[in-house]
Amino acid sequence: MIARRWWAVATLLVAAGGGIAVAIADREVPAAPAPAERPALALLTSLPLVFGESFGLQSGGSAALSRLEQRYSVRPIAVADSASLKGQRLLLMAHPRAQPAELLVELDEWVRGGGRVLLLADPRLSWESKRPIGDPLRPPPAFADTGLLAHWGVELTEGNDSELPVEAVTPGKLASRLCEVAANGFIARCPVGKGRATIIADADFLNGGQKNLDLLMSELERLESR
Questions:
Q1: Does an H or E element contain 103, and which?
Q2: Residue 209: which of 21, 73, 53 has the closest Cα?
Q3: Which CATH number do you get for residue 58?
Q4: Which of 34, 82, 90, 167 is the most buried (most CB within 10 A)?
């Protein structure tokens, strides 16, 4: 498969809104696989990535979804239960809604059995929404952690003014004694039984540019390869 090379120029930009941008190292990005060869990716999210806020067929197709579909066969799921995760190996949880305790047990069992999950846990979401506060279809203002992160040995806090590998407005910070913490607390990569869980302390970065989506894809591919 032919690889294409891209180059990123080292920059450091601090914008008025708190956005942060830093350099990404030169790397090779493989060409997109044919549709029949794309691995499955289960997607659980409260964000309007697939259909948009109006849930109309003409309002979907976010840049993040388009990028994901270049490599994966994306399969949206409503909850992270054993039935939805059966036969899946890779799951993207992009700022999901609060999951009942019994479903978190099933999610944890799936990961410990060999599943791979990338969890975008935003402690203070800045995603713009036309839906009023309190609307059940509006993304929650913060990641609803009901003990899952602590169970995996991770602590999430608000605020991260360190140099980060993406443009971010209100990123959080992760700490752990059990996981590999990278990018100044922006990412935690955790062994969980036979599986792995990677947590990113932000979800708004999905609304960013190419560099932000590069990070998303690189962390998914890292999980695939482990």
A1: helix 101-112
A2: 21
A3: 3.40.50
A4: 167
